[in-house]
Amino acid sequence: MKLVIAIVQDEDAPKLVDNLMKNNYRITKLASTGGFLKSGNTTLLIGVEKEKVDDVIEIIKKLCKSRKQVTTSPSPTPMTGGVYIPYPVEVQVGGATIFVVDVDKFEKV
Amino acid sequence: MKLVIAIVQDEDAPKLVDNLMKNNYRITKLASTGGFLKSGNTTLLIGVEKEKVDDVIEIIKKLCKSRKQVTTSPSPTPMTGGVYIPYPVEVQVGGATIFVVDVDKFEKV
Amino acid sequence: MKLVIAIVQDEDAPKLVDNLMKNNYRITKLASTGGFLKSGNTTLLIGVEKEKVDDVIEIIKKLCKSRKQVTTSPSPTPMTGGVYIPYPVEVQVGGATIFVVDVDKFEKV
Ligand code: NI
Ligand code: NI
Ligand code: NI
């Protein structure tokens, strides 16, 4: 038995949780913030058989991989003296940090 | 030294924390949600000597074991066209998921 | 690769997170409460190379070590019949509990 600890961006968490549950993985969601990834993030605990670890990591990669996204929402540009001009910007979104830890003993009661 | 990671239902958490502390176990409570168990749940971190792991698991089992409970609160029954009739229903409550992880190094400063 | 799980007091957390990030450590902050330490506490997950574990523990020790602090804020003294008299009191602050866990597999995607 292994415990997969996955730290993902908040915006990627719902579809990841959905997908993992559809694949019969059981997840606990911890509230977490900052540090590993710039914006708000979510920590998931996923208990899986050793043979399933790579499958779980594949799912996380597919849904949470760090990628570029074009956004057109106004971004604060201090250079323009407080006038916010909306224009398309490419931002890095997503990304995940995954720790796999060995489990000595697993019990469901 | 072992780290016991226990995910229990919110409603079972207070009496479990109480009981563990009375038995001199030290606990950290993490905010957690959904996934492993249907309703809101709480994740506890309990650092214990190897020899105490089974005692901790016994306490969790005793207080959090999945069990049936009869409730008489009205339950929404879509079959009756929106009219909610209060009647006794047997629901599954409690339950816990426990991971025991080996600790390389433990420090209290 | 090791995972350092550090439970520190809320008031020590910001300067610890700051210091660790300045030293290029990556941190995830989990919301946590009570148990290990009297007041509110914060749980940090820090993924580090084996060789860096002692350095991380030293930083935590330096910034979070349990210490005495003199406070002059009024403390409720039931003995005086509800009259709160402000006077200097020495209180224990800080303190940290650290678990180091081995990581089977680490991925950043
Ligand atoms: Ni195993
Ligand atoms: Ni040990
Ligand atoms: Ni390693």
UniProtKB/TrEMBL annotation, chains A, B, C:
This is Transcriptional regulator. PANTHER family: CYCLIC DI-AMP RECEPTOR A. Gene3D superfamilies: 3.30.70.120. It comes from the Bacteria.
